[in-house]
Amino acid sequence: MFLVAVAAVFAVxxxxxxxxxxxxxxxxxxxxxxVVFGVLGALSVAADRSPVxxxxxxxxxxxxxxxxxxxxxALVANGVTMLRKExxxxxxxxxxxxxxxxxxxxxxxxxVVVWFGTVGVTVAALVALVSAYAxxxxxxxxxxxxxxxxxxxxxxxxxxxxxxxxxxxxxTVTPLLRGRLDRALRVWRTxxxxxxxxxxxxxxxxxxxxxxxxxxxxxEYLRTQGVPAEALLLEDRSTTTRENIERSAVLLRGAGxxxxxxxxxxxxxxxxxxxxxxxxxxDAQVVGARTARYYVPxxxxxxxxxxxxxxxxxxxxxxGPFVVLAAAVVVGQLTDLVP
Length: 339
Description:
- The protein is of the alpha/beta class.
- It has a domain at 159-259: HUPs (Rossmann fold, 3-Layer(aba) Sandwich).
- 68% of the residues lie in helices and 6% in strands.
- It has ten helices and four strands, in the order ααααβαβααβαβαα.
- It has helices at residues 2-20, 26-47, 51-86, 94-149, 175-193, 214-224, 241-254, 270-280, 296-310, 312-337; strands at residues 159-163, 199-203, 261-266, 284-289.
- Helix 2 packs antiparallel against helix 3 (51-86), helix 2 crosses helix 4 (94-149) and helix 4 packs across helix 10.
- The termini are far apart.
């Protein structure tokens, strides 16, 4: 019953926090913890009366190390696919790097213990702790990114802002960007059918390797899909997600259309975009467009790394005491070894 009670606490925390602001990153932690403890708690309670539940609980425990291996293999395979289809940039190699680390870190931990004895045990424990923290944080981030991106937000938007994502060499939209535009079109048409009249705001400037601004290309695509010119307001100066949000908000205020916004981006990008909008004080929620399956692991990893960097003090506060304690233990052990 203890695990069920813990799950209930996390579930209530999630409900309260989500009601306060769906964009809060801790919502993902509460939701994931509620699900994990809820499943384990329910199976633990049922295991006293049901052999099936007991077997499921045992299988779940056995599945954990197996899932780590499967996850590592999948990441390596995806990394190879990314290198083949998208090129050798660091961002495209993240899934490969993560997959290699899944197998390398346990081996490294064992070697450290063998080579350095009791000092190595402390170092290995710290590596395990950091790995567990990163894994739990990533799962929470990925789960809530999907959940948040598919939420029905109870806002009546004055505008639907579509974030740019690069163009083809000929100046037309890429499949990734077309996915965002099609998602924005569905949202806009739904709002129009309800009697609302939100503007559609394609947001994106012209990169150094682009034939024209992303906003211009997006506006052209939207017009071919039947969007009237008077429903479009192009924001063609932004070059980052922050600028997408800031410049679009300023442009809409200048057009006399302040108010709640719906930002449209790719599903892997929704949570970081929502968190950024919150920090900027912009009244906006975010919806996500689906991404090609092979692109998803690297994209989520890239967003997760970016979030860790943006919220690095949270990581420092969470792991800092353990790092200091491990360092003190190692120093103490080394001191004892000195004659």
